[in-house]
Specification:
Elements (H helix, E strand, L loop, with lengths): L3 E6 L3 H17 L4 E6 L2 H6 L6 E5 L7 H11 L4 E5 L4 H5 L6 E4 L3 H18 L5 E6 L2 E6 L1
Parallel strand pairs: 1-2, 1-3, 3-4, 4-5
Antiparallel strand pairs: 6-7
Length: 145
């Protein structure tokens, strides 16, 4: 497999640097090479979207938040999106944006490894965009794995 190109997008620089180190450690443990790029703005990431294989997006960013970024990603160039947030109540709401995974910032230690392993399986399997649709009281929802 070629080197993965991963985007990290969050408005908190301290968090980004810390998370990048943890992500690099998880990828290294799986003997996976990756080019990881940090973005402080969803708009900046979208300008370079075609250059990435996957994205870790903070949901709560000023201006163009992670949900709006995910909506654009799904429309322009669908890639696996892993949401990052301190707001657990957004898990259900975020499903409409078809995230690959959801990592709570307070549970990175427990959730990052599983998300990275699932991402590797996704890229190694060659299967893409397996979509499950279901209806709710709020309309139709889609998820992919």
């Amino acid at each position: 497999m070629e080197r993965l190109r991963i985007a990290l997008c969050d408005d908190n620089m301290f968090f980004l640097e810390s998370f990048k180190s943890k992500l690099e450690a998880e990828l290294s443990a799986l003997q996976t090479e990756a080019l990881i790029t940090i973005f402080h703005s969803g708009r900046l990431f979208l300008d370079q979207l075609s250059e990435y294989d996957a994205a870790f997006l903070d949901i709560d960013m000023p201006g163009f938040d992670g949900l709006r970024v995910a909506e654009s990603v799904n429309r322009i160039n669908p890639i696996p999106i892993i949401f990052l947030t301190a707001f657990e109540e957004l898990v259900y709401y975020s499903i409409r944006f078809r995230p690959f995974r959801f990592i709570r910032k307070t549970h990175i230690k427990e959730e990052l490894g599983e998300a990275v392993r699932a991402l590797m399986v996704y890229f190694q399997s060659g299967e893409r965009n397996e979509v499950v649709r279901f209806r709710t009281n709020h309309g139709e929802m889609e998820c992919f794995s």
